[in-house]
Amino acid sequence: MVLMILVGRQTSLSGQDAEFSQFYHAPVYLNPALIGFSEAPRFTLNFRDHLPAFNHAFISSSVSYDQHFHDINSSIGLNIVADIAGNLLNTYQINGVYAYQLSVTDNLYVKTGIQAGVLYQTINTEQILFGDQINPAAIVDNMSFPTNELPFENTSITKLDLGVGFAVYNNDFFAGASFKHLNRPTFSYTGVQDDAVDLEIRSSIHFGNTFYLNDPFMDKYQLYFTPTLMLANQGSFSQVTAGAYVGRGAIFGGIWLRHALKNSDALIFMVGVKEGIFRVGYSYDANLGKVQTAAGAHELSLSFDLGQTEYIKKRARMRGNQECPVMFR
């Protein structure tokens, strides 16, 4: 059973978004501008099992669709996210996404994106233990003690959710930023303003560049190295994730260090395979935190990009369309 102890009415709480270590393999979730890199549909699935030793209580999953429409220089997408936190606080999001593409030069593009949708959150009151229900004499938690806290006015809340983003890219380079929850949805389950929980704006800045380590005219498969960096902030929480992808042919992998303001959080290892329209990646977060537990996280990403068919790629070349960075193919 997951327990949440609330002591007094002055306790300040703030929510945080679900997070994927393979953030570039969840592009629609990361940034509304990172959509529509081909004129055919792309479908992406992400699954994260965080702290699996705790009975798989923290699960995040995402499914998305995106596609570009050449005639109107626009891309559309849809993203659905479920974040299960210990069967106590469950958050669900559905967002429609739109991005407009501009050609700065023959080989440099800019996309601006917006997202709008609904954020639905539920709380399981049967899993909550308040501070005045603890029996200090027995030094045990005793759910038989009644609480003097105000009852919950409701157990589910639905809010409007808005966000924006932009990206600059060519074949090798990409950079972008996104800002989620611009309207800062407020949640209060008791109806008392002092208990209100604001979902803070989540901002992220991300960029990278691909370097090729062999001659593509002499070797059938290109060997590439892509260092990446992402800075993220939400409320009082900030972190940086730095590392690199490396790949050749169908095989790719990478390693990253995720670091919070005061301590290293995790070392992330990833390996994957891509062939034709399919791409699958697996990653593991090795815990580097001060609390040494059987922590960590398993994460799986799966992509079906119909734009990677030979027919679609040939049509794009005939139009002189810009190919997306190797990171998003």
The parts where pLDDT drops under 50 for at least 5 residues are: 1-14
Largest sheet: 14 strands, antiparallel, barrel
Q: What is the 3D form? A: globular
Measured as a percent range, the helix fraction is under 10%
Strand content: over 45%
Element string (H = helix, E = strand): EHEEEEEEEEEEEEEEEEEEEH
Work out the number of β strands. 20
**Class derived from helix and strand content:** mainly beta
For the terminal residues, how far apart are their CA atoms?
A: 42 Å
> How large is the count of helical segments?
2
Mean residue pLDDT:
83
Whole-angstrom Rg: 22 Å
Strand order of the main beta sheet, please?
2-3-4-5-6-9-10-13-15-16-17-18-19-20
Walk me through what this model shows.
By secondary structure, the protein is mainly beta. Helix content is about 5%, strand content about 55%. It contains 2 helices and 20 strands. It has helices spanning about 25-30, 310-320; strands at about 15, 40-50, 60-70, 75-85, 90-105, 110-125, 135, 140, 155-170, 175-180, 185, 195-200, 200-210, 210, 225-235, 235-250, 250-260, 265-275, 280-285, 295-305. A 14-stranded antiparallel β-barrel has the order 2-3-4-5-6-9-10-13-15-16-17-18-19-20. Strands 1-12-11 form a 3-stranded mixed sheet, with no helix packed on it. A two-stranded antiparallel ribbon has the order 7-8. It is globular, with a radius of gyration of 22 Å. The two termini are about 40 Å apart. The model is unreliable at about 1-15 (pLDDT under 50).
What's the quick description here?
The protein has 329 residues and is mainly β. It has helices at 27-30, 310-319; strands spanning 14-15, 42-50, 58-69, 74-85, 89-105, 108-123, 134-135, 140-141, 156-169, 173-180, 186-187, 197-199, 202-209, 211-212, 223-234, 237-248, 251-260, 264-275, 278-287, 297-305.
